[in-house]
Amino acid sequence: MDVVPADLSTSAVSANFTWRFTALQRQFVEGLPARWSALEAAVQDSEVQRATLHRLAGAAGSFGYIALSDAARAAECCSKADMNMALSKLHLLLLNTICIN
Amino acid sequence: MPKLSRVMCVEDDPDIRMLIELSLVTVGQLSVLCCASGREALASVTAFAPDLVLLDVMMPGLSGQETLQALRQLPIMRGVPVVFMTAKAMPAEVEQLLLHGAAGLIIKPFDPMTLARDLHPFWKHGRGTC
Question: How far apart are CA B87 and CA B105, in angstroms?
């Protein structure tokens, strides 16, 4: 049986993970316009809108887009009166994320 | 000594679901079954026989809490720890979730490089007590 040094084995796992993570990250970014459309479509239903924001906040942060996650969380938690402002900020960050990736 | 090897993940967001699967399979070297809803989990749990269930709280249809209640009725789930996954982590909400019988809580966003490692303490301490 071949003995694989621990550090080599770890780096192989890491390389495999990084390659797949990058692909999933790209897929997440490609799906951002659809997430925004879902938010716009739910404008009359605050419960659906907040659930959509909740999912976006969790996903964005886990993929490393912390500012986007924070903006989604802020919109999820803000009052109805502040929602338009929060969504505008989120939209800008979302477009920025799409542009730089 | 038994070790954590089979994890069922229940998460409605497809991006997060794939990330959890990648994390637990590639980094954690675990067998993973991912379900998109509580109903799907209930239909698959007996055949998969997980060592631990990772359960999203906020899902359409059956919520995380409702799914947990239903899972607990199944004999295969006796002694199997359930860990909630949530973006909301106010202390009162955490307490509420633990009162539902969860072994613990993973907060979103999570670190995909450490998720498998983060589940181990819940498995070690929660096993047999649920």
Answer: 10
Paired with B84 in beta bridges are B55, B105
Q: Which residue stretches of A31-82 are H helix?
A: 32-41, 46-62, 66-77
Q: Which of A9, A10, A20, A22 to probe by mutation at the B interface, max B CB count within 10 Å?
A: A20
Rounded to an integer, what distance in angstroms lies between the CA atom of residue B87 and that of residue A2?
Answer: 43
Cα nearest neighbour of B88 on chain A:
A54
Which residues of A fall within a CB distance of 8 Å from B11?
A: none
Find out whether B85 and B63 touch, Cβ atoms under 8 Å: no
What's the pLDDT at A80? 83
Task: For domain B6-126, give the fold.
Answer: Rossmann fold (3.40.50)
Sign for the pseudo-dihedral over CA of B88, B94, B96, B98 = positive
In the sheet with B31-35, reading across from the earlier edge strand, the strands are B31-35, B6-10, B52-56, B82-86, B104-107
- Residue B88: its pLDDT value, please? 66
Domain boundaries along the sequence of chain B: 6-126
* Local confidence band at A39 (pLDDT 50, 70, 90 cut-offs): very high
What is the per-residue pLDDT across A65-96, written as a single tens digit (0 to 9) for each? 999 999 999 999 988 888 889 999 999 999 99
